[in-house]
Amino acid sequence: SSAKTLQISYIGMQTQEVAIKPNLRVVLKSDSQMVDEVVVVAYGSAKKSSLTGSVDIVKAEQLTKVPVTSFDQALQGKSAGVQVTAATGRPGAGANIKIRGTSSISAGSDPLYVIDGVPMSSTDFASINANDIEYMSILKDASATAIYGSRGSNGVILVTTKKGKSGKTTFSIRAQYGISTKTTDKFEMMNAQEKLTYERQLGSGYGATGGANGGAMTDEEIAAHPSTNWADEIFRTGATQLYELNMSGGSEKTKFYISGQYYDQDAIVPGSYLTRETARINVEHTVSDRLKVGVATSAGISKEGLLRTDRNALNPFNYVYSANPYDAPFNEDGSYNTDITVGGVPLNIFENIDNNPSYINRLKIVGAFNLEWKIWDEIKYVTVAGVDFNQAIQYQYNKPESQLSNILSPDGPKGYRNDNFTQRATWLWTNMLTYEKTFNSVHAVKAVVGMEAQASKYRRINAMVEGFATGKLDAISIGSTNKDVLGTTTEWKMLSYLGSAGYTYDDKYILDVALRRDGSSRFGADNQFGTFWAVGLGWNMERERFLENIEWLTRLKIRGSVGTSGNNNIGDYAAQGVYGYGSYNSESTAYPSRLPNPNLSWEKSMQTSVGLDASFFDSRLSVTFDLYKRKTTDLLLATRLSMTSGFSSRIDNVGEMENKGYELAISGDVIRTNDWTFSLNGMISQNKNKVLKLYEGNDITIGWNSLVSEGHPINVYKMVRWAGVNPANGDALYYTKDGKITNVYNSDDAVILDDKTPDPKYFGSFGAKLAYKGIELSGDFYFSGGNYIYNHINFFTQSDGSMIDQNLDKKLLYNQWTKPGDITNIPKQSLNNQSYQSTRYLEDASYLRLRNITLAYTLPKRWLKPLRMENLRIYAQGLNLFTITNFSGLDPEVGDSPTTGLAATAGPAASVLDFSFPAARTIMFGIEIGF
């Protein structure tokens, strides 16, 4: 009753004291110092203002706006410096992700994924429900990743799943349905009339021999012939449906989150599909004021229909381009037309898909048990025990009556069954002591020491058999001949010691240090342990007196770090001597197949990074800028051995590479009122790569059109340069190595093309969000510029006469050179004329894509109260709605390639467009109901 002032406070607002009056109206101001997001970082959590490393946060709502089956694909355009490429449009396929460039030639550039403290295999993200994710932390520089030691050089992605909240138990139901189609109609292939005319011109094929008199077809016969559009026949409208239920709640002591989801997708081509069921249980229990325990477990099972991706008639995407348009897929009675020949192979693609089924069943379990014991107020003991279990069974059956069985075994046993079983179990045990205390309100100290043990075991069993009587009975035991069973078991182990310490003075000046020592069974006996470290500094300048009166400045922070990390992503026995097994004279034999290398060690990266974080006008405008340089040494490469050793080569640490670049991200709230919100965001990144050192300076060939070479970007093209078409005679022209023009193709004239690399010169995204009360419209564009892709499809379809037995590009008929003086880029057409590998098919694959768009409406709560609902949201989402590009292929976002021939994934970067699964355009409709 004697009080004269009243103190008013609220989370995120500045506390105010006002004189007590009968009537008061107080407006609190935002306090940027209090609105300081706590995020998960390496082995713990921290306020963003206290970080010295480069860490980006991707929240749940950003992930669920992108309707993809594998959550890593949703990261595209969400973090500067993180290049995300959809490896393939296949249902359930993951993405290729590179953080700050390619850091390795042979050991991979995938980041380390950690879910709820457990390192996770990146092979099957489709078994993880993206809606179970609370947010992801992307660690990019040395200060953030060094604590992960030999696994952190490619960056780290920390996945934090949703937890329960005390109070009323809530239920949420989500249902979605959508359709998918191909993203483009860029199929400039000849129709039947055009192809028959072309064949007649060259004097080969049905157009030259299919006339009534056994000779060339007449114009009337050509005009009357039916035509098949193979793109329309093979591509279809896919359908997707999703149903999900989750519940959350608990008491002050026990909290839980439980979810279950069913997902079903039929892809845009027959034979490709994905069904998936996932479940998650997260439980936290407070035993006492000083002891907490928790469990986070998820399980997912899936079945995916597989298509062949070889560069032949078995691949439906090859068939779209290669099948002749004067052939029909079905006879008049609806049966398969088995007289079709594609590339010399008598195969009907629909018969092949129906009579040669192939699919893979997967099981993935990720679980973590954690315990936190507060020994004293400042000291905690934390332990995490986790497992990542992956199992897959791939089924392939060629029915004995199928065309393929007759092709593979024309005179032998018919029918073939192949089962491939793989299993990998990885367990982890982490133990840590943490200390955290603030002295005199300004000296904040924290420290972590710990150890970590990890082990992984892989098992593979492959069983094959031939000789089946009927396609209706496919049990592997029924096969009568050529039975074979293969098996492999491998394992690796790791033991690590880690520590970190940090000091912050008055929330202004920040110092972080980290140290980790890893021991791995993968490396040589003399180098099984490696040490990695980092130092980071930060300065929150807005807290300085000389800036505190600048009202429009909310936050201004400068940070920098330097440190080392490693890459241990090589074979489990790369350093060990290995024996191979065989037989001789009906007896088993063993022989040395690889020499041991006791000196083999990690690839090592040293990264230096400086950055700036700034926000203005009560955080309405935010800017983040980073510069970095990363040098990778001890690259794992093949070295030559003396022939007297009995071996030609072995793996050694001999190479060096460098990445450097910048990252810029800007976001802002243009309008922020009670009813209206309008925000914009954008980011752009650039990375420059250079190979500094290779073994004896020798180039490494990747496929036939690119290589790794000292002084050049990784995976640079080396090709003969195309000079166009001679208008006088229609000959194809090429540049010699010294720049002269010739009509003679010589592979020795190939030169390195530094200015045309598979990696983009820049990439990024921009987006906007507009909301009025319960209505929301948001969208994101993604762009990539300056990267070049070799269009290998055009090499086949614009073959100038050498591939007359398959369909071809319209340009060969309409744009070909026909008389002196013609200006064109299509040479004269003649039978068996060769179109050589050159820059003729190397294209600028820059593009701008509307990656995703969402229109949603959340009903007012007063409407829902009579229905006993907490919320109801309906929405529509679009994915890959349109793309602007000059690239002539189906999709400029090139990921993988066929398994035979040119495999883009065999090299450090995707460089070849082949007959791979293209991305799909998807439209989804959904409803979410909360109780």
From TrEMBL:
Domain TonB-dependent receptor plug: from-to ranges: 48-156
Transmembrane region(s): none
UniProt keyword Transport present: yes
Membrane topology according to the record: Multi-pass membrane protein
Superkingdom to which the source organism belongs: Bacteria
One cellular component term from this protein's GO annotations in UniProt: cell outer membrane
UniProt keyword list: Cell outer membrane, Membrane, Transmembrane, Transmembrane beta strand, Transport
Protein's UniProt keywords contain Transport: yes
Location(s), subcellular: Cell outer membrane
Database matches in InterPro entries: Beta-barrel_TonB_sf, Plug_dom, Plug_dom_sf, TonB-dep_OMP_SusC/RagA, TonB-dep_OMP_SusC/RagA_CS, TonB-dep_rcpt-like
Family named by the database record: Belongs to the TonB-dependent receptor family.
Protein name: SusC/RagA family TonB-linked outer membrane protein
